[in-house]
Queue: 4 jobs
Job 1
Amino acid sequence: MSAYPITIEPMQARYNGQVGRLLAQAFHGKFHRLTNMHENDLALFFEKVLEYVPDEPFTQRMIALWQGEVIGSIAMKWRPASDITSGGRSKLGLKVEQEEKQQVEQSQGQFQEQSQEQSQEQSQEQSQEQSQEQPQLQLKKQKQRLPSWRTFSQSGRWSLVKMMIGLYALEHQPGPGECYIADLVVRSDQRSKGVGRLLVQWARQVVELDPELDRLSLHVSGSNPRAKQLYEQLSFQTHSRESRLLLHLLFSESKWEYMVQRIGGVEIQ
């Protein structure tokens, strides 16, 4: 593998299928207890989640590419230490600018409506016909974009509901200045070859370059000592040990460790 370099690139829609399969490989053991879904069905589920669920602010997924194939992926979410954007403007300032822009656009629209009133009256009938057809076309396009239950007919609706509950239970809301690793997956035939380490090092660089962030964090299951050992080698330390009843009921795993990598020696309260 050393003959070909590994590149870290932003996630793109064309990789949804490959990343979905990676997530299925990594989490099949946990979610199989919950839904009895086969790995192929689980991969399809994750692929559709990547396709249809919109990205939230302050989130990013990166992929490790080798010879054009995805061999690893990391998803991060963070919370800046303040509400100041990268451009130096506050959210309140951006809101004021947007309102002013809307007012200007509204005044321009009113002027155009007055100047084009005669031409609009002449084409009124044609506009009415188009307005009747447009909702039907929009509804058709919307149905084409949304996933259908038939896509997961083999899995069953109840299995999908339990999957969504499971994903929600695994959610973590970062604190101010925290960059949280939501998931880190490596293709099975590329494990123990430095891919996971490379992705974590890339995440650390993100924190180091952002003055609004001061730490990198993640959760690791108590039944995964191999992953914990890797994180300890990368200077992560156990900040707290958690016993979560909901995760025990869903995944039969109640022991979790919250690990943190401090950037610049920052202490965590």
Job 2
Amino acid sequence: MSRRGSATVETALALPALLAVAAVALWGVAAATVRLTCVDAVHTGARAAARGEPPDRVRARILNAAPPNSTVTLTHTPDTTRITLTTTYPPPARLPLPPLTFTLTAEALTEPPPLPPPPTPTPPTHPPTTPDNPQAPTPRPPTPRATPPNPPPALPAQPTSPARPTRPNRQHRRSP
């Protein structure tokens, strides 16, 4: 029995299986990327809903960030918004695998709308005092202001020590 060409036959039989495994692995990585894209899209919509944006704008933000052919369902109540994103990712061509369907859900509490600014108070207007109108209020004299307390007495000056005289740098020479 001859063994010539057996390596070629084994490679020819194993290569399609290796390519199928590599294709499934790459499909899995691409599917994980699609799922992460869906997670980001749902989170984007949840943040927009929490800010109180209208549902049409929330849906547009989600579809803008989601993969193509995705569907979005919004359930809006006064307090919360529930977002459901569904997308399907098909397998690579010629692989007998079912398509993957991702369904992600997020719920966001809606923040209350900002309060309107308080009205600006208007000072009361009084009619001028005239001899004909004795009821008009008279202006109050200014109230005397309290005088600040006396500052504490200054501390006596501390005696300073005279500066030390500096010695000249003497280098000692060694005799050889």
Job 3
Amino acid sequence: MSSQDLTTTSTAKLSVLNKPHASLGMSPMDWLFNRLDGAYMTKWRREFPSEQAVANWRESWAEGLEEERITLAEIKRGVAQCRKLFDWPPSLTEFLKACRPALNAEVAFAEAVKQMNRRKFLMGTALRPGETVQQDEWTHPAIYWAALELGKDLFDYEFKDLQIRWRSALDQALASPKGAVPPPMLALPAPQLTEEERQAQIVRGQEQMGRIRSITRGVMNGIKPKTARKFLRDDQLEQKKKEMAEALAELQARGAITA
């Protein structure tokens, strides 16, 4: 069989990378073969004198990529890097390095702070129907996992204070990949109130505000402390004011009342 007749169809073990992917319209290994074939043409095809050679390549590379937990996004990055780095088709080892090029620790730290802040905002924001916000974007999953390792310290200290811990966490994340970055857990939207519930909340809010105003006026008009204690102690009054302010703010946020 001539090299011109070669296809990427084979009986290689069907790993995840050898199964069709919806976004590609083919398996990731077929996509990768075709991209490297397009980039290196005869240089690439001459490496596969038979269908069995193609099958061996598919199985071996899929196994190596999965062992390193290389994601589809990283495979695409690897192809782009190969076009810049290699005049000849890469070996599996070279391709793995192209998928995960060396990271600048300080640049990665800045990305971690920015994207983790964005993720915190997303996880605390309830989106209305049809509303969208920009999600966090990571150039490399290891940056996310390293950021997760540092936790709150990521926001409390600068790079110069954390660089030893950060480099260690980043090296560990690179050495032991944990896979792709998981999507953020978005906050649930506030439940929609019926008109009857909305009106009931308004009435309760007005009644509570009226009681607090009445007590406040009594204290300001010189009611003796002993008498005032029949209603609320000073600390209870302040707590009630705070609770009422929070309740009003929630009602305004839900559109039950206007500011």
Job 4
Amino acid sequence: MTNKEKFNNLISREKANSVSINRDRIKNRARLRESQDIALKVLSKLDELNWSQRKLASELKVSPQQVSKIIKGKENLTLETVVKLQQVLDIPILASFYENKIQAFSFDEFLKSDISQQIENISSGISFYKKEFIKGFNVEPKMVSVKEYRYQMAS
């Protein structure tokens, strides 16, 4: 048998669908990234709570296999599953989670709080909202600068 015949025996006679597989992968890239981010949040919270995947499955009322899929970060999560995760683990996943938390820091709450504490915070340079943000989200708020871009329409 010649080298050419050996080579031809090695390669597949079927058409490769690599192009379509790559198109699908690129199309789903953003969804996969989000799914992986959610998986990392869930894993971090499970570590923090000292929970097993089995415990999370029982709290969510789903199978351990479903939790395993979520943890792998390749599952296309339903809205129902995302809401359950937020409620059970108290972690932000949807934008509405932040909106609901931010509404809790209303001006009315500020007025109801102890005025001497407010004055102490003001004199020490600590913002009431910053303090409440840290308490609510367990993270320090970040300052973000946005560059201004000027676009010109083509004529």
